[in-house]
Amino acid sequence: MTQQPEWGIKFSRFFLVPQRVILAIMGFLAMLNAYTMRICLSVAITELVVKRNHTDDNGEVVAVCKADDLDSGSSSSGQYEWSEELQGYILSSFYIGYILTHIPGGLLAEKFGGKWTLSLGILSTAFFTVITPLAIIHGGANWLIIVRILMGIGEGTTFPALSVLLAQWVPVKERGKLGALVLGGGQVGTILGNLVSGFLLAAYDWPVVFYFFGGMGIVWFIIFTFLCYSDPTTHPFIKPSEKQYLTKHMGTIGRNKNLAPTPWKAILTSLPMWALISAQIGHDWGFYIMVTDLPKYMADVMQFSIKANGLYSSLPYAVMWIFSLSSGWVGDVLITRRIMSITKVRKMMTGLAAFGPAIFMVAASYAGCDRVVVVTLFTICMGLMGAFYAGMKLTPLDMSPNYAGTLMAITNGIGAITGVVSPSLVGLMTPNVS
Counting C-beta atoms within 10 Å of the first and last residue's C-beta, which end of the chain has fewer, N or C? Predict the structure, then answer.
């Protein structure tokens, strides 16, 4: 075990919060930044693109739903002639790069530690977010697609690296709470990405959205680099009492640098592993459609203004975040008090997050133009989806802490294929908008 420097022990007295909690908070902010940068284009594209109206046989404009007077008057006509199909390709291009770096990211995090694998990935995503306006202005859709792919390459290491960090820092009995906190950053990022984008677009020109969220990613990188480390043994200013606590509840708390080669055959022939992959695909199919296309649905079908769009598109994720934290806490209580086994808790949460959203998503499609009902049903849908983070999403850490990065990379990477397919499919299925 690495000897902790004397100056580190003295410096640790200034930290009132345990380092594992600080890591969880910074992990939460990593997810938050990753998702704001990923989805802000989904809102901005509603202002970038020339709005199309289709007409009836008499040449009169027909809208699926009528615009509300309270919400009208803040949207622009856009300037780019991008078809629905092309918009689908643009929104899905991120996931092409995202898929590519999952497994390399997991392997690098396991070998060299999660700190730099995570932070450099977020930093590169932030850089490409900042230059997105230049790509659009000077290169149009083609350059935008290239930049989005590069953003995805940077962000593809996020989930595997965070899984490795959580496996090194968080005891099993705290895994539900802190794991759900970290992974819940995705929902908060989606909330802020939708909400803040809406207000920024209403007040400023569209490039400000990308400068703002990209800048926040760079600020996060600087703070994270100073505060966080890959494992407790390499942390210079962790309190000795916390190190003893982690040793007691986790055994070894140092990163195993002499791991045996990744057991690919055992992983790929494991039935539980394929069950995780199936659950991930099912979740991601609905989640990515909602993330990429809900703002467009609110703008094009429900006729919300950009401000209202940002608000109502973010509301489902606020409930999802609350439910994910609550389900993590409930899961920990059930496990700690031995009311249910870890496996049963994970299965129960995963099942709730699969069947509940499916029912309410279908119901929302039959709600017509009733805004209150549509927003309510989508909110319940996404709220129930929050249980997924205390279910399947923590299972790779339970199955194999040493190879958590690889397991997360495989499941999340394969699931991300739906992020490529679903927005493109929606664009192909809805060539005409109101």
Answer: N
